[in-house]
Amino acid sequence: MIGVALPLSGFDVIYPLLAPLGLAYLATLAWLLTKGLPAPMRRGTIASGVV
Fold first, then answer.
1. Which of 23, 25, 28 is nearest to 1 (CA)?
2. How far apart are CA 22 and CA 25, in angstroms?
3. Using the 8-state DSSP alphabet, how is residue 6 labeled?
4. Do the Cβ atoms of 38 and 47 come closer than 8 Å?
5. Separation of alpha carbons 4 and 13, rounded Å
6. Residue 8: helix, strand or coil by DSSP?
7. What distance in Å separates the CA atoms of residue 4 and residue 22, rounded to the nearest whole number?
8. Which of 3, 29, 31, 41 could share a disulfide with 48, CB 3.0–4.6 Å?
9. Is the CB of residue 21 less than 8 Å from the CB of residue 27?
10. Sign (positive/negative) of CA torsion 22, 28, 26, 4?
11. b/e burial code for range 18-50 (CB count within 10 A of at least 16 → b)
């Protein structure tokens, strides 16, 4: 996010840092699409602390 926002604040773009940034973004996207986010705990369970 910082690498993309730098030009908006007047700084120069560091192009060699954009490729790893994009790869990290795609890896995170692939991981979330395959594994997903943890299911939210149901209300009323003891583990959630709300009864």
1. 25
2. 5
3. T
4. no
5. 8
6. helix
7. 10
8. 41
9. no
10. negative
11. eeeeeeeeeeeeeeeeeeeeeeeeeeeeeeeee
